[in-house]
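A reminder from the course coordinator: this example appears on the midterm review sheet, so study it carefully.

Given structure:
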């Protein structure tokens, strides 16, 4: 994890080749929603209790997640680009790409990883302040099983157009800009772009590199077959 300035942090988004090319060309990232992700405990780091009370709380909290998902999405980032499991799980088994962004620290929230569920009290149904506190906790907490991701999140409120698109089943996106500056393009070891990096050129990036497994550690390292630099404007 690298802080590029005192106000920004360098974070990484792993995608397949297809999404990488589209993201760079369209200058945007796809939003995810809490009720449509691969973690069944998403926003549910809670012990709801048992019996009728537990059932009631589970139903109530499910409604809260649904409500949030209708108006708010998020982008998942990692604080690291060199973790092999991230490439395997989120970049098409090393055939994808990792995009590095500068993001304001004011917008990026790190995920905390815990090994126990937190009890959720029944007054969450009536106490708005407590409910907001628990939702804030849920938005930044996951099981320790996901700790390898070193995840950071940027939450994005949907505008009217995005809400309409989401209702019609379309994807929603966050555009590149001051709060989402593309700075690095890191090409996976098995990516088709490893042999043809020119397709991923973007004049705003500081570097365009590809990676390979380290010969001495369990990590990915820069493979200096070629490197794009802004001042030269071409692949070497």
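Designed residues:
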């Amino acid at each position: 994890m690298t802080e590029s300035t005192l106000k920004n942090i360098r974070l990484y988004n792993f995608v397949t080749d297809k999404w990488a090319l589209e993201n760079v060309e369209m200058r945007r990232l796809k939003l995810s929603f809490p009720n449509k992700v691969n973690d069944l405990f998403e926003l549910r780091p809670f012990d709801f209790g048992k019996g009728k009370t537990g059932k009631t709380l589970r139903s109530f909290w499910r409604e809260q997640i649904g409500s949030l998902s209708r108006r708010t999405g998020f982008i998942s980032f990692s604080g690291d680009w060199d973790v092999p499991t991230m490439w395997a799980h989120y970049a098409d088994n090393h055939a994808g790409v990792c995009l590095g962004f500068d993001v304001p620290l004011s917008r990026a929230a790190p995920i905390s990883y815990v090994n126990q569920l937190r009890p959720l009290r029944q007054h969450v149904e009536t106490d708005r302040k407590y409910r907001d506190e628990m939702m804030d906790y849920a938005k930044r907490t996951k099981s320790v099983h996901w700790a390898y991701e070193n995840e950071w999140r940027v939450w994005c409120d949907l505008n009217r157009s995005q809400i309409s698109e989401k209702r019609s089943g379309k994807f929603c996106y966050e555009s590149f800009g001051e709060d989402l500056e593309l700075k690095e393009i890191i090409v996976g070891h098995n990516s088709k772009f490893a042999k043809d990096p020119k397709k991923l050129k973007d004049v705003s990036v500081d570097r365009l590199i590809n990676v390979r497994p380290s010969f001495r550690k369990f990590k990915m390292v820069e493979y200096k077959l070629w490197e794009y630099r802004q001042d030269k404007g071409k692949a070497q």
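Residues 51-71 form the longest helix (21 residues). Helices lie at 17-26, 51-71, 84-90, 128-139, 160-167.
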